[in-house]
Design goal:
The chain is mainly alpha-helical. About 55% of the residues lie in helices and about 0% in strands.
Length: about 80
């Protein structure tokens, strides 16, 4: 079963000059509540999402992982 996160941002679009502050809090709350994963799992999850949308093949995802062994993309947050 795949986990899905639904974000309702209707009220944020109504904010004025402080909209950016509300967006930053929302992003921080999402990050704080996501489970930690290792870099290869993150890359595979992103790649599988591309496969599901029909943009790439599963072989491409394997290539993403292999490329990471040669050249690190530095995803962020020490991944």
């Amino acid at each position: 079963m795949k986990e899905i996160i639904l974000i309702k941002d209707g009220e944020i679009v109504l904010k004025g000059l402080n909209r950016r502050q509300f967006e930053d809090v929302l992003k921080k709350n999402i990050r704080m509540n996501l489970p930690s994963k290792d870099k290869n799992s993150v890359i595979r999850d992103i790649g599988n999402a591309l496969v599901e949308c029909g943009y790439v093949t599963p072989k491409y995802v394997d290539g993403m992982i292999a490329k990471e062994e040669v050249f690190n993309t530095c995803i962020g947050n020490f991944l």
